[in-house]
Predict the 3D structure of the following.
Amino acid sequence: MRFQNLKLSRKLLVAFAAVMAASILADLFVLRTLNVIADSTEKNARSFDLSLAVDAMLLATIEQQNTVRGLMASGDEKYVGEYEAAKQALTAEAGTFKARTVSPEQRARVEKVEAIVAHWQSALAERQIALMRDPNGRDQARALTGTIPLTEARKTLTAIQKAQDAIIESRLAATKAADGSARLTLLVGGMLAVLIAVAMGILLSRSIVAPIGAMTAAMRRLAGGDLTADVPSTDRRDEVGAMAKAVQVFKDAANQ
């Protein structure tokens, strides 16, 4: 059915629906983009927490080495307590990281660090602690210092942190891109809604206002006695067409 044959109420409904459709489509896209931003923000918060956990693991690893060195240098038992605290801290932070990460590669790296440090603890650190408690074993304990390095553990923790930094950077870039898309969509959607509103206004003007104007002019001519005036829009099937048919009946009756 042609637009001009629709009832006036339906013409208005079509015009309103067209503007609303453009607005709703833009809003849906923006909503989807906002969901992407929210998801990325949530994941970044978790990634930042995991980065802090990596820092804490590195600190706990270094602290274990330092406390054992302090014990070797001074023989002070307070270092044993500090060693145990650092050991527990590493276990706790590693457990937190493994529980929260979604990366199998990162989880495997943390497990590698745990294995390296556990070997160092059992094969060196705790042997030295035990020997330091024996006055006759202190020289032997000190001689063991540095025989099992933790260099690989530190390198692995550095690799984990670099991977976390890359993940965060990637998600920040995705968030920035999504934010830009949302802003662009709002702008384009608003402009599109305005253009559709203008287009529908022109269409309504041509299909309603202009024909009624022409009808009014014809009725004036007929009222002035000019029975040669053509009645426009008699072929239409809307309210304008109904008016035109009524005027045509009036004209035909006047010609008889």
Residues 28-190 form a domain with the Four Helix Bundle (Hemerythrin (Met), subunit A) fold (CATH 1.20.120.1730). The CA atoms of residues 213 and 219 lie 10 Å apart. DSSP finds six helices and no strands in the chain.
